[in-house]
Amino acid sequence: MADISTQDMLPIGDWVNKVIHFMLDHNAGAFDAIGNTIDWFATMVEFLLLGIPPVVMGAIFAGVGFWRLGWKFALFVCAALGLIWATGFWGQTIATLALTLSATCVSLLLGVPVGIWCARNKLVGMLVRPVLDFMQTMPAFVYLIPAAMFFGLGRVPGILATVVFAVPPAVRLTSLGIRMVNKEQVEAGHAFGCTSWQLLFKVQLPIALPSIMAGVNQTIMMALSMVIIASMVGAGGLGNDVLASIQRLDVGLGFESGLAVVLLAIILDRITESFGHTPTTRAAEQGS
Amino acid sequence: MQSAKIVVKNLYKVFGGKSADVMRMLKSGEHKDDIFKKTGSVVGVNDVSFAVEEGEIFVLMGLSGSGKSTLIRLINRLMDPTDGQIILDGQDITKLTPKQMVELRRRDMSMVFQSFALMPHRSVLDNAAFGLEISGVDRKTREARGMEVLEQVGLAPFAHKYPHELSGGMQQRVGLVRALAVNPSLMLMDEAFSALDPLKRAEMQDILLDLQREQRRTIFFVSHDLEEALRIGTRIAIMEGGRLVQVGTPQQIIENPADDYVRNFFKSVDTSRYLQAKDLIEVANPPHSGRPGLHVPPSCSLPDVLQQLLGQSEPLQVRDDQGQCLGLITPSSVLSKISQHRLQSTATH
């Protein structure tokens, strides 16, 4: 009874299927072009990162950790990366890092300009907001499948599904940061003869930087959590091990690979977060 | 001879759309409260006309919501007027394109804000040179100019600090420097000193008056503080509910407040402090003028007049620049004037 009524009332599902198939039939060229570009980019990032010996990579991370957060964090980075290397997950972790960074780059390239546009144009902001809600709350598996249909299995659908999930915080926090710039600071920009671009680059973006950096941090964290799930469409990396552990009910493997994800997440989170808190931007957060 | 720097003619600003309807209703004499009820639009500035002379400090006063902050933003077109003219140096700036307006702001005007509105990511020097940077002046020139003005207000040692490292008074000095660095012929100051404590406020007023003595600029100053207005204002305009109620020199306004709204401003202010010799005259144009004796200029302040009068049996002469005697001051004329002012300020309590 219930089945019949839901099937007959409003067949949104049928429409979506039709749209997807229409797009598959008529825009294959465009999807191939996008797919190839992203694949080329992601392959390059992974190739570069895997080319760096583990010791050098560890030294780079520890060095950045020391510069941004001090020696205690640098020590933690060494221990964490040492642990990942010792458990034999180094290659997968770097592959996951490459996927995360690729997806983050694409997300920021899309998210920051859209965020700026939303802040400057009320109508755009109003239209984009529900789209962001949709992207963030629609269960990830639901758009993994069409992504795989458009781009085939592999890294590309994984990265694109990740981008869908990771773009919203970049848009939201960029837009929020710009809208939170004090009204008199914007007026000061205008009063001294700023053009629209000068206002953006010399007043709004620098003052919004802490918020934008928080967005970058959130985007990276979202991307990292999503690239693990994206292993279901063959994105690779640590997600493969997590998936294998589920399929084989191997709790030990699940814990080891999961731990590598957690350690990588902590390192990326603390380092990117630190870029939102320089002495001058802290003052901006206090609104002075 | 003085000439008008800004002439404002029949200026209106309507917020909330339907401006054509609102303008028609205003011109047919409807009250702005009725217009708000009918259309939901707020009349911020309502048929305001005045002129600001070259080189004067013109203080616009009013309570919050009187439209003074709107009016100052119409003058550099941070807001666009709904109707009327703003003529700056003979040019109607309401007709300028956005691009011409950007040019005008860079060349001729600058602004100081109540909340200072400094850029937190820029050093004091970079804040000072902000206006010059925006108009494309090269780094060396703009930093030299920034340092020069920072020195004028005693902030040179702080050039490489950041705004959050400075006190409120110092931050606003940076705000003032930023406005002065572009060497504008017109400075707009929106409640510039209102966020500061009374001591710092008086200090900033002194700095402004000193700077004004060194180089005269036209200053359009918005304030809600009458003492500030009396202290720095060449002329004062009083605004209520979007309209100008009265424009005049501090003395004119103290002597002849236009209505109760204006009188109310003086409630807590001892206006007798602002009396000058010319306000204390008892016998105007005395017959025996030109006779030798003690004399003071018309703008001589009350304490100085009192000092001259002490131990003096002859009346004090008030003489203008040409040595013409305008009138005589006697101890009794001073006493009666002071008591008049005291009565006036207590009567409004």
TrEMBL record, chain B:
This protein's UniProt keywords: ATP-binding, Cell inner membrane, Cell membrane, Membrane, Nucleotide-binding, Transport
Chief place where the protein resides: membrane
Pfam families given in the database record: ABC_tran
GO MF annotation, one: ATP binding
Catalytic activities: a quaternary ammonium(out) + ATP + H2O = a quaternary ammonium(in) + ADP + phosphate + H(+)
Keyword ATP-binding: yes
Record family assignment: Belongs to the ABC transporter superfamily.
Protein name from the UniProt record: Quaternary amine transport ATP-binding protein
Source organism of this protein record: Aquitalea palustris
